[in-house]
Write a structure and sequence with these properties.
alpha/beta; Four Helix Bundle (Hemerythrin (Met), subunit A); 3 domains; 6-stranded mixed β-sheet; 15% strand
Length: 437
């Protein structure tokens, strides 16, 4: 089954020229009718179902037609060719959703949620985009805007009646109102650390010295033999990157080159890349060899370079007897101990990974999660403008300046919902959509 959508003035006329209903069902808007799709030369092409929707009551807000035909590539192409001959044209990526936005059917935030829900490939990304699509997020932004507009209206009224004495308590009330709004904006911004992970995935690097078992762990977490495993040190010269679904979370797993002194050439270049990846990762699984007698000293020396990087220590080769106990290195007391050979400890490692990811996750049930970098930037701009306005009120500065700052904050919020937009913004947003949406 394939679905074809036609929107815009004249859509119904194009359908009527090519559709031959095969039932006596009354032709009404939203009534799905069965019939034949006939070419402009009178050739019967396919049995289809068709429905038309009037202007103002369709997804796009325009007159709209939808055709459901058999899903073979050839028949779909033939029907499309006939529709184009009849006066239609091929839609651009995201054009239908763009029309829905331009015709006031949905906000820009909800339009972006359409692309998010299509792209969602894990449970967490689906749930976040679903809540955005249902509108709770956009409604919350609108409420913040309304609260800012109310404060702005009071301040502008005081400008218009500047000769009258202003109640000192008014400034206090405005300051409290702005502080409450600023707090809500900051709460939204704080959700972005988790929202970014939902949207872009949680990046986990696997680092450590050569032959610590990095590639073996990479294969085990991936559940396939993706990385080559060799007892010769330094065989991983570049990084490998794959995606896994870890209990509903999209995880970008990266196997990096082993880090050791004295390397050169291609191996050295791989190590430079590995260090960069580790420093940018959301979490690094730092692997060390428990079977080596000097592992505490080696581990301590290796970690000095990555003091700021979020780390989960993973001691490998517990299947090989070691002479040095865990107490030999106090900072490794919370390390997860595994055997890539026997898979012992792998379940505990996955549980710890999930715990670390969940620590970063916001509450998805509220729908108030920022997943878009564009929204994060606009919210940050709004929060800064509100903060400046609040401080100007506190220091009794000119109300005209305060009003200017509040208008800046309102405009930043309006760019999220689409009250304010330009073609460049729309072009970037809708270019990521697939054809037909």
């Amino acid at each position: 089954m394939a679905a074809l959508r036609l929107a815009g003035p004249g859509s119904r006329k194009i359908l009527d020229r090519l559709f031959r209903p095969q039932t006596d069902v009354e032709d009404r808007p939203f009534m799905l009718r069965f019939g034949l799709f006939v070419s402009s030369k009178g050739e019967k092409l396919d049995e289809i179902m068709a429905v038309h929707m009037p202007r103002g009551r369709s997804y796009t807000g325009l007159e709209q037609v939808e055709i459901f035909c058999h899903g073979g590539r050839r028949i779909v192409r033939l029907i499309l060719e006939e529709l184009i001959k009849g006066g239609a044209r091929a839609a651009q990526p995201g054009e239908f959703t763009k029309l829905a936005f331009l015709n006031g059917r949905i906000s820009l935030a909800r339009a972006e949620a359409v692309a998010e829900i299509i792209a969602a490939n894990t449970d967490s990304s689906y749930r976040a985009s679903r809540e955005h699509l249902l509108g709770a997020y956009a409604e919350h932004i609108e409420k913040l805007r309304e609260q800012l507009v109310a404060v702005l209206a009071d301040i502008e009224a005081s400008i218009d009646f500047s000769e009258e004495e202003i109640d000192p308590g008014t400034n206090v009330q405005h300051g409290k109102a702005l502080a409450a709004i600023e707090k809500q904006v900051q709460e939204l911004l704080s959700s972005y650390s988790g929202g970014r992970i939902i949207n872009e995935g949680f990046k986990i690097a696997i680092g450590g010295r050569p032959n610590a078992g990095k590639s073996s762990l990479f294969n085990l977490l991936l559940k396939q033999e993706r990385a080559l495993v060799n007892p010769e040190a330094g065989t991983t010269r570049d990084y490998l990157s794959e995606w896994i679904d870890l209990e509903g979370f999209a995880v970008n797993l990266i196997d990096t080159a082993g880090l050791r002194a004295g390397s050169s050439g291609v191996e050295k270049e791989g190590q430079v890349r590995a260090e960069e990846i580790i420093k940018r990762a959301d979490l690094t699984l730092w692997m060390f060899d428990l079977s080596e007698k000097e592992w505490p000293e080696v581990l301590r020396a290796d970690l000095r370079k990555f003091i700021e990087a979020p780390m989960l220590l993973v001691g490998n080769k517990i299947d090989i007897p070691a002479e040095v106990a865990a107490a030999g290195f106090r900072d490794a007391a919370e390390a997860v101990r595994i055997s890539c050979l026997t898979k012992k400890g792998l379940k505990e490692l996955r549980q710890e990974l999930l715990r670390r990811i969940n620590e970063r996750m916001p509450d998805l049930t509220s729908g108030l999660v920022v997943t878009s970098a564009r929204h994060q930037q606009r919210l940050s701009a709004a929060g800064k403008a509100i903060g400046r306005a609040r401080r100007k009120i506190k220091s009794n500065e000119s109300p005209e300046i305060t009003a200017f700052e509040l208008r800046q904050g309102i405009e930043a919020l309006d760019e999220i919902t689409g009250r304010i937009y330009n073609e460049e913004i729309l072009g970037k947003i809708f270019s990521s959509f697939c054809i037909g949406k």
